[in-house]
Design brief:
This protein is α+β, with helices and mostly antiparallel strands. The protein has 10 helices and 15 strands. Strands 1, 2, 3, 4, 5, 6, 7 and 15 form an 8-stranded mixed β-sheet that branches. It has a 7-stranded mixed β-sheet with strand order 9-10-11-12-13-8-14, sandwiched between helices. Helix 5 packs across helix 8. It starts with 5 loop residues before the first strand and ends with a helix.
Length: 334
């Protein structure tokens, strides 16, 4: 006779210790389902919860939920790169989601989003394709167990060439804590490439609260104290280096500083013992020209690596009428 499954909200220090061990050991475990991500989201003022399905006192499925509250007590719930479940326990993930949806409905949630690493089916709730691109469907991952020479050799010739251009021009890359300088670069990048950036406190919280995070800034040469011309904010989690945010100024673009930044980030992660480096997001091969990841795909392609695909993010509309009205309002008012 099978043991009954217990679904509960984790709250104690012992719960969290067991949870972190579970996530780090799971093949689908990721930064976005870790306690590090919980602390980051808590630092931004968002509510977070960890639900777990237990059997004989052990976790067999889990979901870190990030709750983003809006007007009138309404909210959206997000399970980034989750839920995750023990192998051959897909049903436990579905049961867990049913419990989370039940709670979300009680708390005036409009929609729940999930971007699990594997596809799963459900009978009791309707999954539909999400309109967001919070978690990329496709990414490039480099094998850092190779030698530096092998890493360079597997790159596109233009990638190697641009790294050498930056080195030849004397571009200097330094580890930094100057988030304000990075944010200034981001503002210029956002205006140039037409994307919205987050407030300064978001990037400061990332660097201050996410263990393993690092900021690299590139300067135009090794001697002068000019302002940085490019920056990279990354993180190391559980043996994987992740390129998270990047920025560059329009000045000195001929120096190819972003290429050297990526190379220095790879070397930093490799020296820290990482086995892989995730470039975090490219457009899928069949994506339309309007796909938001198209702009960075050609840049990332030059570093080589293996293309890895995930199931598209799914949305569960908890309150269809209110959710439709909110989307209409945003479409009209922006």
């Amino acid at each position: 006779m099978m043991s009954p499954m217990d679904i509960r909200l984790l709250s104690s220090a012992a719960d969290f210790t067991a949870y972190e061990q579970w996530v780090r050991a799971h093949p689908q475990g990721s930064l976005w389902q870790s306690l590090a991500w919980k602390r980051f989201q808590d630092g931004l003022g968002r509510a977070t919860r960890i639900y777990a399905a237990m059997e004989e006192g052990k976790i067999i499925a889990s979901a870190l939920v990030v709750i983003d509250r809006t007007s009138f007590g309404l909210s959206t719930w997000d399970i980034p790169r989750g839920p995750i479940a023990a192998l051959s326990c897909e049903r436990s993930a579905v049961s867990l989601l049913e419990k989370v949806i039940e709670q979300a409905r009680r708390e005036r949630c409009l929609s729940l989003f999930c971007s699990a690493c594997i596809s799963f089916k459900a009978q009791s709730f309707k999954l539909k394709a999400s309109h967001r691109h919070e978690q990329p469907d496709t990414t490039r991952v480099l094998d850092l167990t190779q030698t530096e020479e092998a890493l360079l050799a597997q790159m596109h010739p233009k990638g190697r060439y641009n790294i050498k251009v930056a080195q030849r021009h004397g571009v200097r890359v330094e580890r930094s804590g100057d988030v304000r300088a990075f944010h200034t670069l981001l503002q210029g990048t956002g205006e140039r490439d037409r994307f919205t950036i987050r407030p300064l406190r978001h990037y400061r919280a990332f660097l201050d609260t996410v263990p393993g995070s690092f900021l690299l800034l590139a300067y135009p040469n090794a001697e002068t104290k000019e302002e940085p011309v490019a920056g990279l904010l990354g993180v190391i989690w559980n043996g994987t280096g992740i390129y998270y945010y990047g920025a560059s100024s329009s000045a000195h673009r001929n120096l190819m500083a972003p290429y050297l930044l990526q190379w220095e980030a790879m070397k930093h992660c490799k020296a820290a013992g990482c086995g892989s480096y995730d470039l975090l997001g490219i457009a899928p091969p069949d994506a339309p020209a309007t796909h938001p990841w198209n702009g960075v795909s050609a840049f990332k392609e030059k570093f080589g690596g293996t293309v890895v695909s995930y199931p598209p993010e799914q949305q569960i509309v908890v309150r269809p009428v209110l959710n439709g009205l909110l989307r209409l309002k945003r479409k009209i008012l922006g």
